[in-house]
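The passage that follows is intended for readers who have already worked through the single-chain material. We present the inputs for a multi-component assembly, then the predicted structure in tokenized form, and finally a short commentary. You are encouraged to pause after the input and sketch how you expect the pieces to fit together before reading on.
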Amino acid sequence: MADFIIEIICLASSIAGLYFIRDASLPLKPLLNLGLILIITVFNGKLFQRMHLPKITGYMVAGLIVSPYSFGLNPASYIREFKLIDYFAITFIGMQAGSEMTLGILKKNFKQIMVITLLVASISIVGGFFSMLVAGKIFFADPRLVKYSVYLALFLGIFEVANSPVTIIAIMNELKIKNRYTHITLGVTIIKDFILVISFTLILAFVEWKLSAMNFSLANLTPVFIEIFGSAFLGWITALLLTVHLKYVQVNSAVVIGIIAFILSMLGDTIHISPLITGVSAGFFIENYSEKKAHFENLLSDVSPYIYVLFFPMASAVLDIRVITSVMVLVLVRLVLRKVFLLSSFYIAGKITEVDPFTRKYGWMGLINQSGITLALAILISRTMDSLGLPQIGMYIKTIAIASIIITDFYGPPLFKLAVSRSRKYFSNTE
Amino acid sequence: MKYTLLLFFIILLFAYGLTYYFMHEKRRRDARFYFLFLELIFFLSGYILSHFTDVSITGSYSNYFKFFALILTTVIGFTTALQFQYSHVKRIPPVFPIILTVKIIVLTMLFILFFIITGYFSAAMMPALIFFAGTSFTFVSFRHSRGMRKIIWLGILAPPIVLALYLILSIAHIVQDGFIFTFALLLICTTAVPYIMHLMDHLLDFDSVVIIMLSFLLIMIPFFANMSITPLLPAFFCGVVLTNINHKSANRFYKLFSKAEKPAFFLIMFIAGMHFTFSIRILLFASILVIIKLIVNFITGRLIDNSGIRGLLLSAVGGFELIAILSLFFVNIISSYMLSMFIVFLIISQIIQSGIIYGRLHN
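Having made your guess, compare it with the prediction:
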């Protein structure tokens, strides 16, 4: 009890500290804000752990508390500066995801993963499109958007496929449980991301073609394939370099991984490769083809707590919570339908192939959380629509994406944590 | 600008990896030369980047460099301080007061000399401080614990004294009503931090404790910077108190942070290079200070055990002094001219000391 009171006092004092200094004029004030944000994040995570909820949900709630759009405790410019952590975090988390993809386990579950992935993707896209086509006509806040309902439905349909591997990895690390359920969930999530990127580019190119006067050409699709395969190739190079470092240099490896993650993310900005896919590819190759995989895994698990405590609050701090109210009904309809699509996918998968009863029942819980990738796609749509002179479409898509992320961030991780905790009894740990 | 930064990071990563690779192939006693080489590479890269490319230290990335440098210097200062256990102080040999006395006498003489020349307190203090910079804890020493045992009798009080002198400089720089009271209050709060960490040790896992500790270090920076006091001071103070009230926790912190010590120092050299400005006057002035320092060290060595060479061996300037100077620079207490002079002084001292050591090792 005393511990709980101390934690509450520390949390409350830090929040109060942020409140009282918000108008203070101090040199290097962003560092002061960052220090207080970190304290709030750590204690919020601890409190959520006490309530048997995932730590990262606590981190994300901390982000909402310190967000400039909720209580105004931090200026938006500070949060943008702190988002620099994304340069490390995304690649690093991709490496963690890739290092979970052991070929032996993938081969064992390959059929299930592919069947589930294809079913989830197709049912979600098709179901999402038609349901949004109908729902949109009823619930669109702006009547001007009804004219573009087909295109909006296409985008919202593709968003149904989006799913965050970051949250899955974080919860698996927190609970230290790895079994068939977690392997299948992670495998489905990562392969779905590939399908998402390809489908999204096709759909965006199609919408751009229809809404503008330009001629459609297959050459428009070249960048996406370059991005995917280029990223995978770069990941392989990264894996080679890291293996050489771990074998011959052997010191300061965590720092070197951090710098490589930073470089890859900067490359992502400049030559349009995906740092996430690069990280996944690098982690995958090291895990399956490098003799230093054990060392690599230890490094990742040593560094991950520090990455999460910065990445997750900042990811939610940029979300404008005020936008939820304007699109609440449509978002709730989407989320209910999302669960229906997922449940039906797993049900059909269970009929087609051997999916164990546990995964059939709880598999959907790992695929709820949408997070970063949805926002990134929404921003891309917004930029494209702005260039076509239709900013209202982009704005609306971004609003729905943000609202969906905020809501799924709340209940997605706890649901997955519940499923993973229960899977411990059902499966024996394989590692 | 992004492309340039990217290219440099990639080059530095390769240089780092190659140097370490070749270092492992050679005898370990030659390691310090490889580290010196790597320090110079990083330093020169920073210099080339900011002076000959489109990367600007006053541009959009300037805040990031500043924050990063201050965070690094504060953490390094904290890590250094974790080694200052009271039990070590009790083991100082009798010669140490002699050395300290000689250094303080020379420092005072230098201060008076420069005060007469310049007429300004702070301008006079800086060269004196630069001269005083001792061999406390050279960050590039390959075996840190061995380095600790060898030079602890000389270096143990140097960082606190240096910091005290920097504090005097800060007071001279800005004297305002309530300064002493505010400073005392801040110092009391800083003292409370290690006790809070001691409590956190029972509440949270170690990773969370590290994050909370780093948060407190970050929080202290703006308050002390607002009073033009280097944030290194509270970090150092915090570390000393922590290591003496909770040795176990301090050891764990040290074990964790010391892993990143060398890369952090190389990055510090990179940032120092970015802010370095070269002129013949700087080179001349720094060289004169090096010569004076060598003479004094030689004489001191002769006084102690008739070995002038031992005194010369301790001529190098440690990383602690560099990060102290950098932290003063980033809170606008000293100019880039002073910073550059110190860097030249540091490089020349390191080269001379390394040359002497190399000569001894291979003869």
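Commentary: The mean pLDDT of chain B is 72. Chain B touches chain A through 43 residues (CB under 8 Å). How closely did your sketch match?
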